[in-house]
Write a structure and sequence with these properties.
By secondary structure, this protein is α/β, with parallel strands linked by helices. Helices cover 52% and strands 16% of the residues. It contains 12 helices and 9 strands. The strands form 2 sheets. Strands 5-4-3-6-8-7-9 form a 7-stranded mixed beta sheet, sandwiched between helices. Strands 1-2 form a two-stranded antiparallel sheet.
Length: 326
């Protein structure tokens, strides 16, 4: 087996040229995508560990102010840099686009902070290559040792978010926030994302359901290490970001049930308080301010929720019709 060095702009890639047997199936092209923001201490380890499993490695430098991008370039991988910090979701979107441009059969994403073990790449890739899944998710909860290493507050948050996602997707994913994933070329073509923050992990799973993509969970290890605070996002802001993303996605996906039903309930409550107020006025000749205010508040809330639900539903239907015409 020989090796040749290709020089393209700011990157140097090592391409292995092997002799394939006549009639043997072509080896699938695997691209490893690494979203990174200020990870100069760990990015080299992640890249070096991933190289033996990847045909191409692409690092998305999300506006880092340290040497993350420079270290990555010196290790001979492609670096796509955002001029400013756009967020984890934006980095994932950039990696998707670049993987499609490279003609990837499989895109593997893993975090740059060293939590994921590159040795798990073959495990997460296997279901996609075998054709049994369009998306494979490396779960931290299928391995007891990996699960026990997760701080209790993060484990609680992850399980809560995963339960909400599972109730909406029915895909059997216990770790909806795992960044170690493998995507087939079919997934790269069909998935669309709008979330720029941490909620993109949830958005992908919810969109996968709508696109009829098969999702499978596989065991994966996770090392939080002694430098946990330096490598993970603030759990409060992280959790709030993901929860808000879930709410937005649920409203967009099912506006009539998520907003319309509560809207009708609020309208009914407003009518109830209004009738009660009128009964008191008819019997005693006085208006109870608290009941009157409650009636007005419920009616207004219900009206706005219901009108918003109808508007979003109409926009969604129109978008679906335009998509079908394409």
């Amino acid at each position: 087996m020989a090796a040749v060095v290709e020089i393209q702009s700011d990157k140097i890639g090592i391409v292995e040229i092997g002799v394939q047997q006549l009639g043997a199936p072509a080896k699938p092209s695997i691209v490893v995508g690494i979203p990174a923001f200020n990870e100069e201490k760990t990015i080299a380890k992640v890249i070096l560990g991933s190289q033996k499993y990847a045909d191409n490695i692409v690092v998305c430098d999300d506006g880092s102010s340290d040497l993350t991008g420079e270290i990555s370039r010196r290790l001979g991988v492609e670096v796509v840099r955002h001029g400013a910090k756009l967020g984890y979701g934006a980095a994932i979107q950039t990696l998707f686009e670049r993987a499609k441009e490279l003609g990837a059969d499989v895109l593997v994403t893993l975090d740059a902070d060293g939590q994921h073990d590159p040795e798990d790449i073959p495990t997460v890739v296997e279901p996609v290559i075998a054709g049994s899944a369009d998306i494979a998710v490396g779960s931290r909860f299928t391995d007891e040792r990996s699960s026990s290493a997760i701080p209790w507050h993060r484990k609680t948050g992850i399980k809560l978010i995963s339960r909400i996602v599972e109730n909406n997707t029915k895909q059997g994913v216990a770790d909806a926030q795992s960044g170690l994933r493998a995507y087939s070329s079919k997934s790269l073509d069909r998935l669309t994302m709008a979330e720029n923050g941490m909620g993109v992990s949830v958005e992908i799973l919810m969109n996968a359901r709508k696109q009829g993509l098969r999702v499978q969970e596989v065991p994966a290890t996770c090392d939080y290490g002694s430098d946990l605070k330096k490598h993970v996002h603030n759990p409060v802001t992280h959790g709030a970001d993901v929860i808000m993303s879930i709410i937005r996605l649920m409203v967009e996906d099912r506006p009539l049930s998520v907003l319309g039903t509560p809207g009708i309930v609020c309208l009914a409550g407003g009518i109830f308080f209004g009738v009660w107020m009128l009964q008191i006025y008819a019997a005693e000749g006085r208006i109870v301010t608290n009941i009157a205010l409650a009636s007005i508040a419920f009616v207004l809330t219900g009206f706005f929720a219901l009108s918003t639900a109808i508007t979003l539903y109409s926009i969604s239907r129109l978008a679906q019709k335009m998509e079908r015409k394409r």
